[in-house]
Each structure stands twice: as structure tokens, then as C-alpha cells.
Design a protein that fits this description.
- The chain has one domain (34-190): 3-Layer(aba) Sandwich (Uracil-DNA Glycosylase, subunit E).
- Helices cover 47% and strands 13% of the residues.
- A hairpin with a 5-residue loop joins strand 5 (150-152) and strand 6 (158-162).
- By secondary structure, the chain is α/β, with parallel strands linked by helices.
- The model has no long low-confidence stretch (mean pLDDT 92).
- The protein is globular.
- It has a six-stranded mixed sheet, with helices on both faces.
- It contains seven helices and six strands, in the order H-E-E-H-H-E-H-E-H-E-E-H-H.
- It has helices at 6-31, 58-63, 70-81, 102-116, 126-133, 165-168, 172-191; strands at 42-43, 49-53, 89-93, 120-124, 150-152, 158-162.
Length: 195
């Protein structure tokens, strides 16, 4: 038996994730009715950190990419402050376009989680929390309303609930609340074993 180098195995997993992510993006685009602007997830297809908020903002819908615009810039600054590699992050929305059927959206978010296989899911806001808890994800434990506390989501995935980033951008107290909860991700990241 010939041993396969781990770099080769990692590359095959990455190629598979890229292919599956592209297929899902095409499916989302096809499922959107005319005039709707589908928004696909963005980031590394095998990210350690998976961020999910409820629905896209106008800038995201205009570009078709999750976390485009003010929320994306705020998240990027926060990641930099916490010394989290932004290339190890994937971001998406529960609802991919206005008026989307929730069952279809649940199926798509579940597929994204299966593709990315993150180590931490950062759930942004109460609407996203209710949506993620409704997924019936295999071996998942419901995430509780405990801001800034690491929780077990599945045996291999932790969860962190933070306030909705979109609702936190224009109010200083809300920004502070978001930061206080989100900085737990920095402590979690610092504990990850090096590659």
C-alpha cells in the first residue's frame, strides 16, 4: 500500500468543497425568481470559522455576495483586531434572497455547513439563531440565547451567538455589545492547534 501525502488529500477535499460550493451557488441563482437578487456565501470553502446572519442587506443583494459592504468591513476589522486569519472564514445568510421559501433556505444552509465543515459557527442575531436551531442538523444541540459564550453545536462544531452585525453598525452601545460577544471568537482562534 502506498501512503498518500496529506497535502494531496487536503487538496482533494478543497477541490471537492469548491465544486460543491459552486454547484450550490448556481442552484441558488436558478431558484431565485426574476427580479430577486440571490446572495451566495463567500470565503474559504473549508473555513474553520463559519459566520451566518439572517438575511442580505441591499449592498449584498446588489453584489450577490454575503458580507459585502458595511457589515463585511466591520467583520474584517474585528477579525484583524482579534488576529483571526480572514482567509479561514466563510460567511453566509440564512435567507439567500427576498421572499425565499424557508424550507429551501434551510436545505441550502444545511448543505453549506456540510460542505464547509467548520469548527466554529458564529450565529449573528436572534432571527439567525431561530433559523439555525430549526435546521435539524445531524447531532446538533440547540444553541441557547447566551451571547458571547462558546456552546456545543455538534460533536465537532462549536457555536457562538453574537448580536446581529447589521443592527449593530449605527449604535455605539450595540457595537460594543457585538464586540464583547464576538471577541470570544478570538480566544477560540488562539486555542486552535497550528496547521
Amino acid at each position: 500500500m502506498v501512503a498518500v501525502p496529506s497535502d494531496e488529500i487536503s487538496e482533494k477535499y478543497l477541490q471537492k468543497a469548491i465544486s460543491e460550493t459552486n454547484e450550490l451557488g448556481e442552484e441558488i441563482a436558478r431558484s431565485a425568481p426574476e427580479g430577486a437578487f440571490p446572495v451566495i456565501g463567500s470565503g474559504h470553502p473549508l473555513a474553520d470559522l463559519f459566520m451566518v446572519k439572517y438575511g442580505p442587506q441591499p449592498a449584498e443583494a446588489q453584489e450577490g455576495v454575503a458580507y459585502f459592504g458595511r457589515a463585511g468591513q466591520a467583520i474584517l476589522k474585528s477579525l484583524q483586531r482579534l488576529r483571526i486569519d480572514p482567509l479561514a472564514v466563510y460567511g453566509t445568510n440564512c435567507i439567500k434572497f427576498a421572499g425565499q421559501d424557508e424550507e429551501e433556505a434551510r436545505s441550502q444552509l444545511t448543505r453549506e455547513l456540510h460542505i464547509v465543515q467548520p469548527k466554529l459557527v458564529v450565529v449573528m442575531g436572534e432571527d439567525a439563531l431561530a433559523f439555525v436551531n430549526s435546521l435539524a442538523f445531524p447531532l446538533a444541540t440547540p444553541i441557547e440565547e447566551r451571547l458571547g459564550e462558546l456552546q456545543r453545536f455538534t460533536p465537532t462544531i462549536d457555536a457562538l451567538l453574537v448580536p446581529d452585525i447589521d443592527a449593530s453598525l449605527d449604535d455605539q452601545a450595540a457595537k460594543t455589545s457585538f464586540w464583547q460577544a464576538f471577541k470570544t471568537a478570538g480566544a477560540w482562534w488562539a486555542e486552535l492547534p497550528p496547521y
